[in-house]
Amino acid sequence: MTEPAESNPRGTRYDPSGIEGPLYERGLSRGVFHVDAAEVAAPYGMVIPPPNVTAALHMGHGLNNTIQDVLIRYQRMRGRDAVWVPGTDHAGIATQNVVERQLAEEGLRRQDLGREAFVERMWRWVDEYGARIIDQLKTIGCSCDWERTRFTLDEGLSHAVREVFVRLYDKGLIYRGNYIINWCPRCRTALSNEEAEHREVDGKLYHLRYPLAGTDGEWVVVATTRPETMLGDTAVAVHPDDERHQGMVGREVDLPLAGRRIPIIADRFVDPEFGSGFVKVTPAHDPNDFEIGVRHDLPRIDVMNDDASMGDEAPEAYRGLDRFEARRRVLADLDTAGLLEKVEDHRHAVGHCYRCDTAVEPRLSLQWFVKMKPLAEPALSAYREGRLRFHPERYGATYEHWLTNVRDWCISRQLWWGHRIPVWYCDACGELTVSREDPDACPSCAGEIRQDPDVLDTWFSSWLWPFSTLGWPEETPDLAALYPTNALSTAPDILFFWVARMVMAGLEFMGELPFSDVLMHGTVRDAAGRRMSKSLGNGIDPLEVVEAFGAD
Asked: Full-prediction pTM beyond 0.70?
């Protein structure tokens, strides 16, 4: 048996700490990880999936960066001009949440600091953790071209973000509108459909009685999992071919607790097999109901505040109540009035914020969107024609399914950390200005203007990563020599967030795929098969592994 290192004076046990560090430093000093753009003859390029500047790296980063390092070193040894571009991501929601928690420990909110001071606080966090992450990548042996290190809020990358926004807006692919979005009451921001992670939960299905107007003791029964939203109902719907309810269309019901009468309408979206065949229609709180409302020109009543408490549009008795407390109160009041017919156990999918795990609230909101269909079609063709390959191949089918069914992307976030939306409003004349540069006044009336307070979704900057990191929209030597890259290695859970969107952006703005091969690696799990995470306390710090056993 080998003796412990501390009692082995002859040094017969391999000590990686005395070997790996000097070897790595020798490579750095000789510049073997860097290739000048002017000298690139046989390029092989990769971009790192930029780690979020929220905290230290975890074993998932360890796995993915090891795979990339193997690929890039192999191509370098084959004589290719191998360039691996590193960097970090500002991670809007996640990083703002971390810093807000710090402030909370000091008894402060970001509003106490104001926007400018809060952003300064955010930059202090980035200066600390961004540098720490780069040091960690070096410690595990990553042979990145460190001279090309980028950050998604760098001046050059921010310029690229503005350029893309303006181009898409001018092309009619970015628009602003009132639509149902996923709202996180904890983060107080909109989320895209992909950021609302749906999972099955055990809940209840509540069957409610809505009295028929002008009758004594007659009602229709609707079923819902969110009874608090009934306060915003503006219709009850049936399927037009449902023979049970042919005489009901055109009549009205008295909406309980709200003191309003609402119509019974016919719409083919209604599933006649669900419940009684009657469904409540709440256009401001459900995406399907929103579409029904558009078809029938129904009012949209948003009964909630940004924190998911009941707002001014709700009846006075419920205003200010948290949504779940309002649910209990509504059910109790309906039961007292004899209008709660029954309650059933019901397992159903509920969306949760991908950053803080709060149950999201579908609600009507004025947001900025990208039209995705025109961008998705070329990206879909690239896969179907074999120009874009996935490893393992099964992920190609997942990619194809998502692009085939893609919905418009909500890109505005109600945060202070990130790329500010480059739109200005003039209250005097109503002019809306979209600009690459900050305007001083309204171009129409020369009046005062105010910039949109929202920032862009983090992924709106990272979908440009394969070419913004190389200097686009400027025609730089790096861009000419190193785009497109060759391969991408990443986790399957960001196939939609990042990979598919990078393909769309590359084809739209560069006219070429950003890479030809995508490797989807496995997920690092613990002995019980759970994903490693800080919240579960089951993670392994890759630097602890390096310290104990070496990077190799």
From this structure: yes
